Amino acid sequence: MSDYIQYAIDAISLGGLYALSAVAIALIFGVMRMVNFAQGDFITCAGYAILLFGVHSTWLIIPVALAGAVLVALLVERAAFRPVRNASMPTLLIASFAASAVIQNLIILIAGSTPRSVGILESVSASFVTIGGVRIAVLDIVTTVTTLSLLGLLTVCLYKTSLGLQLRAAAENFTVARMVGVRANRIIAAAFAITGVLAGSAAGLLLAKTGGLSPTRGLQLTVVGFVATIIGGMGNLFGAAAGAYLIAIITVALQTALPVQIRGYRDAFVYGIIVLFLVLWPDGIFGARGTVERV
Amino acid sequence: MLKVEDIGVRYGSTQAVRSASFEVRAGEITALVGSNGAGKTTTLKAIVGLASLSKGTVFLDGKALRRPVPERLVRRGIVLVPEGRQIFVTMTVEENLRLAELAAPKGKAQEGRWTRDDVYERFASLARRRTTSAGALSGGEQQQLAIARALVANPRLILLDEPSFGLAPQLVDQLFVHLGELRDSGTAILLVEQNALRAIDLADRAYVMSQGTVRRHAGGDHDRVKEELINAYLGPAERQEADGV
Description:
The structure holds 2 protein chains of 2 kinds. Chain A is mostly helical.
């Protein structure tokens, strides 16, 4: 029994990390109809920001990670995406791939391509608590609380604030949103700033968990986030988060259920199941939004 | 207030608007009528910057509008109510109005300014359905919401694109009454309508658009506008034939 509880905790913790990336991708898809493949690179940049400025003081980690990711997200939006904002979906997709490649190569240029080890929050990563006979990693609790709080805050922001009202309007129909006075540049910049906050948080949690950093560190989270948004229904934030948790559950289940000899192929099985899933529900769990051409 | 001078709009190789010139005066309803595909909607889009001009100039308060941006024009009191209502269907009535209110020109309370309460007073059925999702409203209510949404932005001029489209006849009557009252409250309206004769009767000034061109200004002379309108729909030659019969 305690094993199953342990698996559940693993899945919730991993799902939270995936959800931070998935929700960010869904948010940008909502307002721009663009899949932002640079989201993982925002996470990587936040990781390097921590490596450069944050390792010496625990208190600096969070502000440095958030500031780094938000800054990069805003810069990329301004330099790479704003000039092509009204272009077709394939053009936007290529722009986001290009932005991702440029960021990765800039990181290699500045910090080199050698993977680094970054030890942060080591006292937290190494500690456990025992609740009802189940040994739980404190980091899993921190990860779960952080991700759920961020997702909760984002929901409050979307449904209770003027910014959220404008973001939802922009996601439903960008042109009409502008007709009622939603400022296009500001609202898209705000959406990117939010994805920066999500990326910075993901970077902190990821580094605390794995301690490893490389120029392509965030790539896996982009892929998982993208797949999760497809499972949940493109542009649907709630669906994206649900998709992320579903991928995490499948991953943890296979990790424990697969025989040791084929465990190395776990991800092939994960994505195989997702392909089957999409054959059955091509629009995702909650239906796709905004896949209709924009006015 | 708004003066459009010889504007043209081109979509690729199609010349959607060839040459349009007209004027909208403060506190008046100006009708822009004409058949389907005449370029009326494109003209409205060009005024607010959703279509780029290939020639000509739009003047607001005597000053040329260079590179108009819809969200900035809203803050200057020019609001477009697009064809087909285009309200936010995933939001409630209240949220649709709150969103539009955000863009209302700030500063001290202006005389005759529309608040959400005023709008609810005017459109009672919207008041009853405040917390309803806008997608669940009837067609008539959605049109009311589209106009109400424009009003809370506190505009000086509303550009209305086909407001009667798809509405039942009694709702159209009600709509035209509302538009008349709006004008009387001091808001100027540029009304694009396929329901041409009714629009002309309501308007203080009317223009006929045909094949991308606003040909002449007939001003308040409604009979002349109607004659021009018939010419635009039938063409002068057919008209003579029709008269001959």
